[in-house]
C-alpha cells in the first residue's frame, strides 16, 4: 500500500497578518491579483490551488 503525501508549496493572501509559516507567502492587493498569482503558481509548481477563505489561497502538491 502506498502513502499519500501532501505539501503546501505556497500561500497567496490579501492579509499578511493572517498567515505565517515555512511556505513562501505572496501578498496580493486585490482578489483578482490573488487569483492570478495562485493560478500562475499552480502551473509553475505543478500543484493545485485551494481557497481557504476569501482572503487566502494555498497551492498544494498532491502526490
UniProtKB/TrEMBL annotation:
Domain of life assignment: Bacteria
Record-linked InterPro entries: YpzH
Annotated Pfam families: YIEGIA_cap
Protein name in the entry: Uncharacterized protein
Species, as recorded: Planifilum fulgidum
